[in-house]
Amino acid sequence: MKTVVLKFGGTSVGNIERIKKICKIVSSYKKKKFKVLVVSSAMSGVTNDLINKSKKISDNFDTAEYDALLSSGEQISCALIAGQLNHIGIKSRSWQSWQLPIITEGPHKNARINNIVVKNLKKFLGIGGVPIITGFQGVNKDFRLTTIGRSGSDATAIMLAKFIKADECIIYTDVDGVYTTDPRDHNKAKKIKKIYYDEMLEMASLGSKVMQPSSVQDAKLNNIEIKVKSSFINKTGTSITASKKDFSNQIITGISSTKSNAKITIVGVKDRPGVAASIFEPLSKNLINVDMVVQNISLDGKETDLTFTIKSEDLKKTEKLIKQNKKISYKKLSFDRGVSKVSIIGVGMITTPGITYRMFQALASKKINILVISTSEIKISVLVSARHVKKAVAALHKEFKLD
Ligand code: ASP
Ligand code: MG
């Protein structure tokens, strides 16, 4: 008998009608003689609503209570699912993280699962029951409730699949898979049938909202194959996998773009060892995430220019931190808030020469100026003016034969 973990996202359990619908999906796996476990998110909007309530009390709401508050959303959806399954004649019960327990490590709001005790789940599966497990939450060694980061139910499902040794882990969501680029922005986007963990990790980190980035990492580390499918329409989704067999010789798998970045250039910085560290130290202390960085080689060894990108919303704070920074001296600071990062992603680029050239050429032919470039083994990112993003994505989508 095969074991499957089904994870349902917030929109998939967003109202009672939808909960009835996903219970039919659960029932279809039961009919196919699967042992079924369900992990659910909170109903859509619930977690955000709880966050807003905490903010009305304080922006520094006690983090342990924040987790106790936020984890309540999953209790509701799981009880409703278990209730509906019992109603239609499928034996089911809900489990909250502390009842298993799901043991986490690390800080409140951003803990990581390191063990799930599955003994009682196995017993229940053994008598034909369907356990419904709260996503997103866990308990720490002090037995306090924790949460594992926004969209964390993905990670719960993946770790559950690991500890229960499931044959499959299926992420049911409101899109029918992972696309070559955001289908809302580009009408030629196509669904990807199979994608490697590393590619998915890049796509997720670069803003594809389909899965939580750290959950993809969990899947990779534990070799859990995932399928992403829609809970609304019955279509084959996307497989996220490590296996190399039956991949086409596609070089680029996907293209992603960010909406709002800001570029900062510090001109004429005194060049000496430690200057970059001095610039970034206060940013890191203030949790400002620096993304692309370029430093020019200083010809005379005295001065250099340094450019980096951050999220637009961090611009004011960053400007202030640089101006206050007594450890650096420079001639001029300049800012550009209207920039976006466009990236091409694919493991095929490791073995195929000329990809960088083709990318730059495709952008040049559309008269799109490249501001900053950064590369990794399986990704090339360029920074362009935000008004050129759509055009850039379209040109690259075509160039790399994804249309
Ligand atoms: N309910 C949580 C959130 O909104 C977890 C999840 O949806 O996966 O972030
Ligand atoms: Mg989600």
Annotation keywords:
403 residues; alpha/beta; Carbamate kinase; VC0802-like; 2 domains; seven-stranded antiparallel beta sheet; 12 helices; 19 strands; binds aspartic acid; binds magnesium ion
Count of distinct strands: 19
Strand proportion: 25-35%
CATH topology of the largest domain: Carbamate kinase
Mean pLDDT: 93
* Main β-sheet, spatial strand arrangement: 3-6-2-1-9-11-12-10
**Name given to the CATH architecture of the largest domain:** 3-Layer(aba) Sandwich
CATH class of the largest domain: Alpha Beta
Shape: globular
Helix residue percentage:
25-40%
User: How many structurally independent domains?
Assistant: 2
In CATH terms, the superfamily of the largest domain is Acetylglutamate kinase-like
Major β-sheet annotation:
8 strands, mixed
Bound molecules: aspartic acid, magnesium ion
Question: What is the gist of this entry?
Answer:
Helix 1 (16-31) packs across helix 4. By secondary structure, this protein is an alpha/beta fold. It is built from 12 helices and 19 strands.
List the helices and strands and how they pair.
Blueprint lengths: L2 E6 L7 H16 L3 E6 L5 H12 L5 H8 L1 H16 L4 E4 L6 E4 L6 E5 L2 H8 L3 E5 L2 E3 L5 E3 L5 H11 L4 E6 L20 E3 H9 L7 H10 L3 E5 L7 E4 L12 E4 L3 E10 L4 H11 L7 E3 L7 E9 L3 H10 L7 E14 L9 H11 L6 E5 L2 E7 L3 H11 L4
Helix pairs in contact: 1-4, 6-8, 7-8, 11-12
The structure holds aspartic acid and magnesium ion.
Aspartic acid binds next to loops.
